[in-house]
Structure formats: structure tokens, C-alpha cells
Amino acid sequence: MFNLLIKDLLIQKKTMGYLLFYIPILLLVFISTSMEGDIAVVLYTTCTCFIAYLLIAGACSYDEQNRSEVLLNSLPIRRKDIVFAKYLSIFVYAVIGLTAGIVIALIYNVLGLGEAVRYPAVKDLFGALCGAFIIGAAYYPLYFKFGSIKTRLLHVIVIMAIFLIPAGLVWLLEKYSQGTAVNLLTQILNSPDWLQAVGSGVVIMTILLLSLAGSLRIYENKDIS
Amino acid sequence: MNEILEVRNLSKHYPGFSLKNISFTLEKGYIMGFIGPNGAGKTTTIKLIMNLLRRDSGEIKVFGLDNIKNELEVKERVGFVYDDNHFYNELTVQEMKKIIAPFYSRWDEGVFNDYLDRFELSPRKKIKDLSKGMKMKFSLVIALSHHAELLILDEPTSGLDPIFRSELLDILVDIIQDENKSVFLSTHLTTDLDKIADYITFINQGELVFCESKDEIMERYALVKGGNELLDEELKKEFVGIKQSSYGFTGLTSDIHRARQVFGSSVLFEKATLEDIMLYTVRGESHVQPVN
Question: Which of A65, A75, A77 is the best substitution to test chain B (most B C-beta atoms within 10 A)?
């Protein structure tokens, strides 16, 4: 499984090289954003999610372009290991993305381009990882079912759905529950940080596990041609 | 247990194509040629053996083991060469090897390097810069570097120059000098099989035509040539396929002894090649051309 992970990194040497160009661009975007409040959260989450998405989609795209599924599935590898390796890669890509975020913060601070940006705290790591996991969880079942090209389109829709459906539900509850939903939401937001973190963690892990189960089911029954 | 590959009643259905109850057996120490026209189901059969496609019914045993239940053990001992390139174009030969080698417990670096030298493949060259022939050579190097006991090759010689084709055939013959190894070779180029195959499995439109030893096939099949006046509708049925022109007919019989009894010395008998057998069987009745 780790060989597959290394394979995904090796085939993306070029993409990783491009990251060196993305970092100054992200830095410029960051400088031009005159946000109020804790901008470090935005920096680390955006970098992690953006780069994780690039690498997830890039590896899948390389696999498809080179029709390498035929090769991989002819080697002594279980199909489930191919799926597990893809999910494991989300974590690795998130670490790469987060590192890029830290490099941007470092350059920003060293060059004194504005008010100093703090370096990541646990909550930043947590938020960034959760973002990357949602992106991967939405991407892989679609990729294993439809392939890379269709997934790029469908993924946007699924990501939007993941964020819009809860917002829509809150709106509906707000409208029809006569204040109960707002009270509930307020209670959640006012709960201790650790409780919010545990709750979010459970939700994200549930999404990830459901996605993994779906991907395994799809890939185990797939005809590779 | 002498069978290295057993396929029993294998079926796979697609919209517009079905592989129907294919059965054949390959024993250790032999080369089996797998022939048939485009779309006959050769690649589908190979992909089913490699468990790339899910079979609808039937059984596939490799080294006496079910190819699905014992997938890892089977694939560990199988070397494969496909007609298309499935390597990552951006990687070098060496990088591609680094990805593949760890999956095989019996990977032999010495054998790998020997074959790279023999085929004049540079480890630093990118896959995308290799010609079709060189990519095929690289596939073969990978297949040969982990002491595979069964080599499965899908159209390996198509697009290769005659020199490398000949070299490849020599390598395959070398491999089966070890009597525990076998080669399953799918090809259009039946002349390759005339030279090296021990057994021939022929499929057409998803159905098995025959699976026999090449020598038996060559003894049984023959081309029969004669004048059109010798033929009537009943006698045409004696042939697997027949080609007619205003000068006479040429038919393929699958039973030379019976054909000799039926036609006696009024016709000419010629040895049929595998290409003749494939061509006449596939075309069958449609081979008959109207006589002016």
C-alpha cells in the first residue's frame, strides 16, 4: 500500500514542482486580501484544501491518462489496497498543503509584508485536515465510478452540496421550528471548543468512512478495461 | 497436477458481445497460441484470467488455484505483457521499475539488469521517449524479472520489427526449456505460432472453435483445390470455408481423411497454415464468391 502512495507522489513530480509557482501566487492572493480577524485559519485551510485537491485530482488524472489501472491490477495487489492507498494519500497531500501554508506565512513574516501571521495551532491543523478529508471523501467514490474527467465536474457539485445542504437544513429548521433550531445552533456554537472539535471530528470521520465503503464496493466490482 | 492454466465454461456478457462457455487447458512446459480475429474475445479472456474483468460464470484455475480466491499468489507467479502501454509516460524506465519491483517477492534485480542490457534499454530514458517496440521490450523485461512460471502475452509482436519478433520468439522457447513454465500467447500473427506453439486455442465471435495440439491440427486440416464442376451444395458442406472463382475452388477441410474419401484424386490437397485455418473458419460460407 505504501508503494502505491510513493507511486502517486512519484508520478506527480511535475505537479509538485508547480507548487513552487503556486506558493508565490497564493502569497499574492493572501497579501491582496485585507481580511479582518484571524486570517491564519483561512491561509492554512485554503492552502491545504487547494493543494490536496490538486494532488488528489492530479494522481487520478495521471492514472487515467496512462491507463495504468490495467497495470496496477495485474500486479500482486488487492483492489482494496489500491483504494486504501488513495484514501491514505489524502493525509499526505494535506501535510504537503499545510507545509506550503507555513512557507507562505514564513515568507510573509520574514519580508514584513503586513501584520505578522501566527504559525498554525492545533485548531488550524484540525480545520485544514477536515477540509482535505471532505474533498477526498467526495472525490474518490466519483473517480472510481466515473473516471477522472467526469469527476472533475461532479466533484464541484458534491462539494457544494456538502456545504449547502447543512446550510439549507438550518434555514429550513429556522423557518419552521419557531426558533428551536436557532437556539440549538447557538448552543452548539457556544459549547466548549473540545466538544465542537469532537463533534466535527465524528461527522468528518463518518463521511470519510462512508466514502471509503462506497469506493471499496464500487472498485471491487469494477471491470478494468 | 500438470495443468498450469485451466479455463472451464468461462462466460462474460457485454451489450453487443458475449464470451460463451470457453474451455481450454494449458499444461506445464508448453506454449499455447491463442488466435482469433479482432473482437473474437481474446483480450476479454486474458483480462478475465488476470481478474481485471469479473466473470459471469465459469472457472479459471492458474497453478491449480482459483484466480480470484488466490489472486495475489497467482499474480505473483504470472508475468504479463499487454498490447498497449500501461506505464506512466512521465517516468523513466528505472523509476517505473522502482514502482513495480516491490510488489514481487521474487523480483530479481540481476535478471532485470541483464535484460535491460540485452534489449539495449536505457534505465534513464523516459517511457514516453521509448518507441512501441522498446515499450514492448520493457514490458517483457518486467514480466521476466520475477521468475514468473506462466507468461501471458496479449499481441506482443504486433508492430514489432522482424528482428525483435524473432528474438522474442527465441526467448519464449528458452523459457519453456524449464518444464515447469508455460507461455500463453495471443496473436494475430499466426506465422509466429507456426514456429513456436505446441497448442492452439482458436476462438471466434466469443466461442471456442478448437483447442488442440498444433501438430494434430496440421495433420487434420488441409486445403482442397479443384474445379467448380466437382462441387454441389451438398459437397460444399464438407468444408469449413470455401473460396470459389471462375477458375475453381479452394476449400478448407477439418478432416483430411474424409475429404480424401469424398474427392479421391480429382482434387489437389495442400497443407493448411494457421492463417488459412483462421481465415476460412472466420469467413465460412461468406467466402463463397459467385461464379460467373
Answer: A75
Backbone angles phi, psi at A194, to 5 degrees: -65, -35
Query: In whole angstroms, what is the distance from residue B248 CA to residue B262 CA?
Result: 17
Neighbours of B253 (CB within 10 A): 25
Are the CB atoms for B252 and B240 separated by under 8 Å? yes
What pTM, to 2 d.p., does this model score? 0.86
C-alpha cell at B118: 540485452
DSSP notation for B130-147: S-HHHHHHHHHHHHHTTT
CB-CB under 8 Å, B71 with A66: no
Distances (CA, A) of B254 to B221, B241, B249, B278: 4, 10, 16, 12
Q: How high is the pLDDT of residue A35? A: 61
State how far the Cα of B251 lies from the Cα of B228, in Å rounded to an integer. 11
CA distance A133 to A145: 19
Contacts of A62 in chain B (CB under 8 A): 88, 90
Which residue bears the cell 466533484? A155
Q: pLDDT band at residue A178, thresholds of 50, 70 and 90?
A: low
Least CB–CB distance from B99: residue in A7, A14, A74: A7
Cα separations in angstroms, B121 against B94, B138, B153, B173, B233:
10, 8, 20, 22, 58
CB contact at 8 A, B193 and B199: no
Distance separating alpha carbons of residues A75 and B165, to the nearest angstrom: 25
Question: What is the interface pTM, i.e. ipTM, of the complex?
Answer: 0.87
Q: State how far the Cα of A84 lies from the Cα of A204, in Å rounded to an integer.
A: 17
Joined together, the cell numbers standing for residue B232 give: 454441389
Condensed to tens digits (0 to 9), the pLDDT of residues A125-162 reads 888 999 999 999 999 999 999 998 888 888 778 777 77
Please report residues of A whose CB lies closer than 8 A to that of B51: 73
C-alpha cell at B262: 469424398
